[in-house]
Specification:
The chain is an alpha+beta fold. It has 26 helices and 22 strands. A hairpin with a 2-residue loop joins strand 3 and strand 4. The N and C termini lie far apart (54 Å). 43% of the residues are buried.
Length: 701
């Protein structure tokens, strides 16, 4: 029996039929066949079978699910029965940098553990493996009543979500998280096994992992060896797992069906036109300018010398990557054809709904309410960004201080009433992050903080809190006072605050904690304003819009990405760009040719290991390849597998044409870029001499 869930209950079957009949007649929503980051429990089985003649079975999917690993905000996978994990070098970069020093820079030299004893522990990291998925939609939606306002609906859902997460975490021992799908039209509970003993096994030199540097980022053809290997330990021994992906020794051919399993961050394909316009006119212009400013600051610092360059690299890589990505997203929204397409889709849906008075009463106002929320958001976007989201306090120390302050404040509250990030399901992760040893360089922190304080003063100088913090003093002086006045680099001091009482925070003499306390009231006020005046309206009305589309097209419309496990699929396939055929794969020969053409100078400089071992390599072995698999930030490190469930590559990038796919996907030019499985083995054997590791990967051990 077809039922359309609305905020007040269930519509009668006959009315649903009439509504969907007219909607289907009037509304055309193009759905590109290979588009989408699909839910593991809602796969498009029939379509894949019809187009690719491959049956995705529940057993196949479950094995891939249990072999896939969430690596921070990115992706990875088990590739041996002894807990060996494959991901991108740029995903593991922060951990590699944490293990580095001025005397031993692993970004420059690379790392290869010849024995298990040499595998290097990476404190503070968590790897998550999704064990189970449960649909809790009815339980979440049942918490709301027809007479509730948008704010009350959001609060009711938030409360029941907190209760569900706490209940299942305690019941199962698994890290439980409720995932919002279809803008609140569906909720699934994801239950994770979390591993905390993670050790570095292998990483190539940065020059090889990011060959071509920022100029080649988000482009293709590419010649990058962007992979690294870690190992999960349990009880101080390598994890024994039956769920891992075997290695595909032959690699993919053009036209082959492949799948990518990972944790895509976010897409905006179901956003309303007003939400897209807010991104285009307010959010993205500021983000681009801000990233450009911070890039310039870090580049100037890096030019001071080799050690400054090493220190700056941690932040500079992420800033340059984000800048190129956001610029690409903005290019899509500035494309008149893309926005016209979105506008027409929304107009047709709204006009169809107007033909049915009851539908118009229930759904008609949803778009206008979201549009009004975007207008309200634009009035306090910058204060929210600079204060609550910490853009005005660009230093690692402030992030630590705010977490300590808020953890203490939230500790005594009921779980459901705490800020979301400090609920029971998340506390252990925050504590582990706070207590993980990672290098902090005070000179660098002063530089970053001084610049962000200058920006804060320029943007919000009339706010009394900003006057209290900066006054008429140079921001360099204020930043130095704050950095030299904090002891939050000391793990024991952080531990005392974590285990202490709230009065220990209030009476603290630490300068950074004092700063966090000073701006906490106004920051919380802005957060509450956003949740009440923007987010609650997006949740309530976004759910209404999403349910109409979901009920019309069912599971043929995948939900937007939400940083949770998904799979995508597509064909290994080249493309034509400006009349030129772009091949589906590149080879080691092209790597050396490109380096030689640039005189082996940055960003096309090869590490000494590759210069020395050129004769040993088979230059015809593939290094990178592309496929039409749908992906976005967060998919980095995703295993790319064939129909046998074998790893044939690891996803590390998309081409420049893939960036507007955040909003509209097309497989004409859109491509994901992978490191080829054969290229990885060739390099491990011929350049790095890691035969023992290769034997483990190939199952020969």
């Amino acid at each position: 029996m077809m039922m359309l869930l609305l905020k007040g209950g269930i519509m009668k079957k006959s009315k649903v039929k009439v509504f969907i009949f007219f909607l289907a007649l009037a509304l055309f929503i193009p759905s590109y066949a290979d588009e989408g980051m699909w839910l593991f429990n809602m796969p498009p089985v029939d379509y894949i079978k019809a187009k690719y003649n491959f049956t995705v079975t529940p057993e196949w999917l479950k094995h891939v699910q249990l072999s896939s690993v969430r690596f921070g905000g990115a992706s990875s996978s088990f590739v041996s029965p002894e807990g060996l994990v494959l991901t991108n070098h740029h995903v593991g970069q922060g951990l590699i940098q944490n293990l580095s020093t001025a005397e031993k820079d692993l970004m420059k030299t690379g790392f290869s553990a010849r024995t298990r004893e040499e595998e290097a522990k990476c404190p503070g990291v968590e790897l998550w493996v999704l064990q189970e998925i449960e649909d809790v939609t009815s339980r979440v939606i049942a918490a709301e009543r027809p007479d509730m306002t948008s704010v009350e609906v959001a609060a009711a859902r938030d409360k029941i979500i907190a209760a569900i997460e706490k209940e299942y975490t305690e019941k199962t021992g698994l890290r439980s998280s409720v995932v919002n799908l279809y803008s609140g039209g569906m909720y699934h509970l994801y239950k994770y096994k979390v591993y905390t003993d993670v050790r570095l096994v292998f990483a190539p030199e940065y020059l090889m992992a990011f060959f071509g540097g920022d100029p080649d980022n988000f482009t293709y053809p590419r010649f990058d060896l962007d992979f690294c290997l870690f190992r999960v330990y349990e009880n101080d021994k390598p994890l024994k797992t039956t769920h891992y992906l075997k290695w595909g020794t032959k690699g993919p051919r053009e036209g082959d069906l492949v799948f990518a399993s990972g944790n895509p961050g976010s897409t905006g394909r179901l956003l309303t036109l007003s939400q897209l316009e807010f991104l285009r006119d307010t959010n993205y212009p500021f983000s681009i300018a801000n990233l450009q400013r911070r890039r310039a600051l870090l580049q100037e610092y890096a030019n001071k010398g080799p050690e400054e360059a090493r220190i700056a690299l941690r932040n500079l890589f992420g800033i340059e990557n984000s800048l190129k990505a956001v610029t690409g997203y903005q290019s899509g929204l500035l494309d008149k054809k893309l926005m016209e397409k979105k506008a027409n889709e929304e107009k047709e849906l709204r006009e169809t709904i107007k033909k049915n008075p009851e539908m118009e009463k229930e759904f008609g106002g949803a778009w206008d309410e979201i549009a009004a929320a975007q207008k309200r958001y634009s009035t306090f976007f910058k204060p929210l960004l600079f204060l609550e989201r910490s853009q005005g306090f660009n230093t690692t120390y402030f992030g630590v201080a705010r977490n300590l302050v808020r953890m203490a404040m939230e500790k005594g509250k009921p779980n459901a009433e705490r800020l979301r990030e400090f609920r029971d399901a998340n506390l252990e992760s925050i504590k582990r992050s706070l207590l993980s040893p990672s290098p902090i360089y005070d000179e660098f922190e002063i530089l970053k903080l001084a610049d962000s304080l200058a920006q804060l003063k320029a943007e919000l100088g009339d706010m009394i809190e900003v006057k209290w913090i900066i006054g008429n003093r140079p921001t360099q002086e204020v930043a130095k006072e704050l950095i030299t006045g904090t002891k939050l680099k000391d793990l024991e001091i952080k531990k005392k605050y974590i285990e202490g009482k709230v009065e220990d925070i209030y009476l603290s003499k630490d300068a950074m904690i004092k700063l966090a306390l000073l701006i906490d009231p106004v920051s919380r006020g802005l957060r509450t304003k956003y949740e009440r005046e923007v987010e609650s309206f997006e949740i309530k009305n976004g759910a209404l819009i999403a349910r109409t589309l979901f009920k019309l097209k069912g599971t043929s419309i995948p939900p937007d990405a939400t940083s949770s496990l998904r799979f995508s699929f597509g064909a290994v396939k080249g493309y034509v760009e400006n009349g030129k055929k772009i091949p589906f794969q590149t080879k080691f020969a092209g790597l050396y040719e490109k380096s030689a053409k640039a005189g082996n100078k940055p960003p096309y400089e090869l590490p000494q290991s590759f210069l020395a071992k050129k004769r040993a390599l088979n230059l015809n072995v593939p290094l990178n390849f592309v496929a039409t698999c749908d992906s976005i930030g967060g998919n980095s490190g995703s295993p790319v597998i064939n129909t046998k469930g074998e790893v044939v590559g690891v996803l590390f990038d998309g081409n420049i044409q893939s960036l507007p796919a955040r909003f509209v996907y097309s497989d004409e030019l859109n491509r994901s870029v992978m490191v080829h499985c054969q290229g990885i083995i060739e390099a491990l054997l011929k350049v790095y001499g890691a035969k023992t590791l290769v034997d483990e990967i190939l199952g020969k051990k």
